Amino acid sequence: MSPQLRSTLDQGIFPTTKQRRQLIQVLYDYMLQFGRYPSRFHYEQVAQQLIKEYPCLAQNNIPSAKPYDYWKLKISDKFRNERKSMGNLVDEERRRKVRKVSHQPELEGEDHGSIMMHIKWMQDESTKKTPDWKKVKALMEITFHERRGDITNKMMVQDIKEKYPFLFSITEIHNEFERITGVAGVTTITKNLRPFVEGILHFPYKDKHAENFIKTTFANKLTEAVTMEKAEGTYMYNEDGVEAV
Question: Of 23, 45, 117, 227, which sits 20 to 30 A from 17 (CA to CA)?
């Protein structure tokens, strides 16, 4: 954000048309971390946080729209226009990612028979109280091609769960995310959750039981993810919760 724009907002002055375009560009650059197709949830959260941070943006002289809807629409329009300007490049990028995930080459030294043996071993191992997680991870890597084929061919969820029971464990959910995207799952999840922590913990829930359940579950899962990050050496925040430089 330019010093001039920041000064305008800090003084509580509603930005000019040119400054609003600059602000939308800043928000667009920030939201690219969620990809070129952010979810409605991302649009809503960014618009809410923007007005909360700079109340002057909620002034009534916004043309023909409620402030919250105005900013959400402007951000959404920016993404749509940028995707149009890139045209075939974005479409080809999406197709390339799908091909990469859906058609992984089979590993050298493995055939269908050995893959089925690995899957059977993991099914048996899943019944043990203390599975061999190191071997599980190795075999989940080896059976990735078979698993992606089953999923892209729309195998029923229950059948997938029976065939690959470890896929539904917390550890392997994170590992599978990394296999598919090439990005550390735990790091990405905790980083993307952080902008919404305050909203989740301070939302005015009407049902007290639901409030306690949601807050407790969220806190436990976030703590679990952070613990895994620290164990993997990928935790990016200091003791005050500030992202390390």
Answer: 45
| Chain position carrying tokens 């055939």 | 111
Distance separating alpha carbons of residues 226 and 243, to the nearest angstrom: 13
* 26 vs 166: CA distance, rounded Å: 41
Burial class (CB in 10 A: 0-12, 13-18, 19+), 174: buried
Tell the burial category of 23 from Cβ atoms under 10 Å away from its Cβ (0-12, 13-18, 19+).
buried
Crossing angle of helices 170-181 and 208-232, rounded to 10°: 60
Say if residues 95 and 135 touch (Cβ distance below 8 Å).
no
Q: What is the pLDDT of residue 182?
A: 67
Q: Where among 169, 199, 217 does a domain terminate?
A: 169
On whether residue 68 sits in a domain, the answer given is yes
Q: Tell me the residue range of the domain where 33 lies.
A: 3-86
Is 57 inside a domain boundary? yes
Residues 40 and 81 in one domain: yes
pLDDT of res. 17: 85
Contact assessment for residue 226 and residue 190, using Cβ atoms and an 8 Å cutoff: yes
Say how far apart CA 104 and CA 98 lie, in whole Å: 10
User: Do 71 and 15 sit in the same domain of this protein?
Assistant: yes
pLDDT tens-digit map of 9-38: 888 888 888 888 888 898 888 888 767 777
**165 and 105 in a common domain:** yes
The stretch 105-113 carries a mean pLDDT of: 63
Q: What is the pTM of this model?
A: 0.38
